[in-house]
């Protein structure tokens, strides 16, 4: 499965190289939460998963104009819904990370290279897509977008919130919030969801054909019912968005629906 993700990611990356970093539209982004809960939809056994809504994927080194589209949807899911648990994931890479083209002399962002499988006794390798440096702790690009972050700050203490800082191991990438791309190490997310009696997860965030894809697939493998909110996830082109959502639905049994449809069905 990660072959597919890697292939899709390489395509997305090729497209994103042409995306220009642009300033965030003031009227849409960073709108703080009023602090008054208007939650009218309650989901006590569902987790809201917000994947990698970090500046580097919005207006930073891997940014795209399309990323802005999802923010109002995510704000609404935080303002007007209450969840059994909220989880955020962030890429959290050391400067030496294997996914950075800058660590592979002679290679550029958009290339792929073979890297060693960490637990392999037979020196097997895995295809790794290469990217511009991104999501290094301490840089603005690693931060969660302010409108989302202020809402999380407000909800802290009212709703259980788990923050996953993934892909810290320099030798292996991690698209999924549950595990790295080699299943060498797992995060605490699945056991925390089980401990809180969560049986379903609603997935939003960036980018659809890489970290949203990997997180959704792993959630199905762990036995959670998965809904991806189609207007709450984005990637660098309409074509990649459609392909990834179709695969999630047809190959992995993921429920894909708009926020409006999700709200109407609850
Ligand atoms: C992206 O937007 C944030 C928030 O407005 C800003 O602080 C940051 O400098 C922007 N990044 C780039 C690369 O323009
Ligand atoms: C794996 O690579 C190491 C170091 O190059 C070598 O010593 C070993 O024989 C290789 N193992 C296999 C199964 O190919």
Brief account:
Helices cover 30% and strands 22% of the residues.
Structure description:
With 266 residues, this protein is of the alpha/beta class. It is built from 8 helices and 8 strands; from the N terminus they run H-E-H-H-E-E-E-H-E-H-E-H-E-H-E-H. It has a domain of 175 residues: Isochorismatase-like (Rossmann fold). Helix content is 30%, strand content 22%. The strands form 2 sheets. It has a 6-stranded parallel beta sheet, sandwiched between helices. Strands 3-4 form a two-stranded antiparallel ribbon. The site of one 2-acetamido-2-deoxy-beta-D-glucopyranose (NAG) has 2 residues, from loops.
Keywords for this structure?
8 helices; six-stranded parallel sheet; metal ion binding; single chain; two-stranded antiparallel ribbon; alpha/beta; nicotinamidase activity; 266 residues; Rossmann fold; 30% helix; binds 2-acetamido-2-deoxy-beta-D-glucopyranose; Isochorismatase-like_sf
Q: Helix count?
A: 8
Give the second-level CATH assignment, the architecture of one domain.
3-Layer(aba) Sandwich
Largest sheet: 6 strands, parallel
CATH topology of one domain: Rossmann fold
Distance between the termini: 31 Å
Mean pLDDT across every amino acid position: 89
Ligands, deduplicated: 2-acetamido-2-deoxy-beta-D-glucopyranose
Whole-angstrom Rg: 17 Å
Strand segment tally: 8
Helix content: 25-40%
- Provide the spatial order of strands within the biggest beta sheet: 5-2-1-6-7-8
Q: Element order, helices and strands? A: HEHHEEEHEHEHEHEH
Give start-end ranges of low-pLDDT stretches: 1-23
CATH class of one domain: Alpha Beta
Structural class designation: alpha/beta
Principal-axis shape equals globular
- Proportion of residues in β-strands: 15-25%
Instruction: Please name the fourth-level CATH homologous superfamily of one domain.
Output: Isochorismatase-like
Keywords: Hydrolase, Metal-binding, Pyridine nucleotide biosynthesis, Signal
EC number: 3.5.1.19
Family: Belongs to the isochorismatase family.
Pfam families: Isochorismatase
């Amino acid at each position: 499965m990660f072959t597919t993700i890697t292939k899709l990611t390489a395509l997305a990356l090729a497209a994103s190289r042409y995306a220009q970093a642009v300033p965030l539209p003031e009227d849409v982004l960073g709108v703080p939460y009023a602090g008054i809960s208007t939650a009218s939809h309650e989901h006590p056994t569902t987790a809201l998963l917000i994947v990698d809504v970090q500046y580097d994927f919005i207006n930073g080194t891997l940014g795209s104009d399309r990323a802005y589209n999802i923010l109002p949807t995510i704000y609404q899911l935080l303002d007007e819904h209450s969840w059994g648990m909220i989880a955020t994931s962030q890429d959290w890479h050391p400067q030496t990370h294997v996914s950075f083209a800058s660590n592979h002399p002679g290679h550029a962002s958009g290339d792929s290279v073979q890297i060693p499988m960490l637990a392999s006794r037979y020196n097997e390798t895995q295809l790794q897509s290469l990217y511009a440096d991104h999501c290094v702790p301490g840089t603005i690009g690693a931060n969660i977008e302010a409108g989302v972050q202020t809402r999380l700050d407000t909800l802290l203490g009212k709703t259980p919130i788990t923050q996953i800082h993934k892909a810290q191991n320099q030798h292996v990438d991690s698209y999924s919030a549950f595990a790295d791309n080699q299943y060498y190490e797992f995060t605490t997310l699945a056991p925390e969801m089980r401990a809180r009696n969560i049986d379903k997860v609603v997935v939003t965030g960036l980018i659809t054909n890489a970290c949203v894809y990997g997180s959704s697939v792993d959630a199905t493998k762990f036995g959670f019912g998965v809904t991806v909110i189609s207007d709450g996830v984005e990637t660098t082109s309409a074509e990649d968005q459609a392909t990834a959502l179709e695969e999630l639905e047809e190959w992995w049994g993921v429920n894909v629906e708009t926020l409006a449809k999700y709200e109407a069905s609850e």
